[in-house]
Amino acid sequence: MNWKLLVMLGAMVVAGCSGQSGTATGDGADSMSGSGVDGSGVQTWPDDGGASGSAIPIGNDAEAVVMNERVIYFAFDSSEVDDASVEILKQHGRYLAENPGESVRLEGHADERGSREYNIGLGERRAVSVKSILMVHGAAESQLVPVSFGEERPADLGGDEAAWQLNRRVELVYER
Amino acid sequence: MRHTHGFAGSIFASLLAILGLTLGTAQAELRIEITEGQAEALPIAVVPFGWDGAGPKPFPMAAVIAADLARTGRFAPVPERDMLQKPTSGAEINFRDWRMIDTQVVIVGRILPAASNNYTVEFRVFDVLRGELLMGYRMPAEAAQMRDAAHRISDLIYEKLTGVRGIASTRIAYINAVGDPKSPTYRLIIADADGENARTLLESSEPIMSPAWSPDGRKVAYVSFENGNSQVFVQELRSGARQRVSARKGVNSAPVWSPDGKRLALTLSKGDGNLDIYTLVLANQVLTRLTSWPSIETEPSWSVDGKEIFFTSDRTGVPQIYRIGADGGRATRLTYEGAYNARPRISPDGRNLAVVHNDRGNYRIALVDVEKAYTRVLTRGSQDESPSFAPNGEVIIYASRVGRRGILSLVSTDGRVQQRLTASEGDVREPAWSPFFNN
Known about the structure:
Distance between the termini of chain A: 33 Å
Number of strands of chain A: 4
Number of domains of chain B: 2
Strand order of the largest sheet of chain A: 1-4-2-3
CATH superfamily of chain A: OmpA-like domain
Structural class of chain B: mainly beta
Oligomer: heterodimer
């Protein structure tokens, strides 16, 4: 699955989360390098072990970088979250745990094939699947608002598998 | 058994735009094109109606009637240029002229001025071979309702000649998405069955889905995302008044009316990610849960007698059609042919379901015999969906695509007649055919 490629969301930068105390450690870094996302994050991690020494410019912190990954993709007719996406969701879960004032809309989507109302079901199932992973990683239910749009809001307007792949997704939309 | 027939050119007429009953402005009208007709269509002549008043003829009655009859696929109207005479009363008809061009039925009529700028319309239907009057009527028609009068005449003629109630006076509801395809404006539109007289019932920057007619044809239920989540509304057509009837946590979707108009069946997730079918009594909001499986249960459709509900469930891993008592009970599976059967709609005679069926990778409209579960694929698109029966059961309207564009298509339930309706603007989808209106 090449779902990882090049997904940059323009809107809704989670700027406010930099400066939080959370430390996204090895996990976050790994998922970053695996994801191929560059973006605005500074890929310089404080090497753990010694807090002293020279100052390291950190820019956005690790969560900010990982949390630019705000779209989770799915296989056809599936709501299963793959391992790489679970890594992304872990970071969001921890961030939400540490920021109980934050909440996030989990917008579930389906590709255009098949009937529209059934696709509302698929979008809902995907959103709730993401929700349960976020809860495993510390998010509270009250912070998570699943919403299904079915096939009504495609990310890509094309009519082939490349487009459908981008449309079977859950978008994490932070609200504040 | 498909035939291509070339009478499409004769059915177009440039028609007056008439103000909607109450709501919205006329826009995004649909244009109908007959893509396949029936070879055995009956040759019929609708002679231009006479006008006994001063000034130009108030309305092209004959053109609208001819187009209505042509769309049924059962009649082939004679083009006006082929008519050897243009009688406007029975006495003027020379039956030999019509036999010469193989016309079997001739319709003549007149528009007469009546009080306060209204009209009287009369018409007569003749059997050419026997030279006999089959039917004749005179009716009042308000100036603003001439198109309705033409459709009513079409329906009277159709029923007289076929024994089946006509659908020219019925309407369709559909969703039109216009503007930037990434963030379109959504409209819920009501139009005459021929696509004319379109008016917007609701416009929103958020998705609108799943329009469903009340059995009396006075209200439409639908899903709107205007408040950030799917919610079910009921709107009265005449007054435009609307009511939010379900805004529960999670999904509120797929509303359909019980045959007595007292309840909706709908789909709710209650926020737990699991869609199930419920019924909702509109008068008192009493909610009854019909299914409780961990799978997707949605797209309810009431049986004609109101005792059962058909629905889509993917409890086996893929969507199939099931049936359950309207007050609950045990669900039984109905479809076994193919790996995808969804969005059932019952035919008016209760014998068939129109469904979305995956036919070797293509999503197509199929008819499923309710008792024998036999499946017959009716359409040939790749993304056909949202089938809806005309109230006489002869035609199904559904959503399809030409290229990437969403259009509406019609297919006769015998598969022989096919038509397309293309909007002047944007995508059209989710058509819902109205019931008969009792004039």
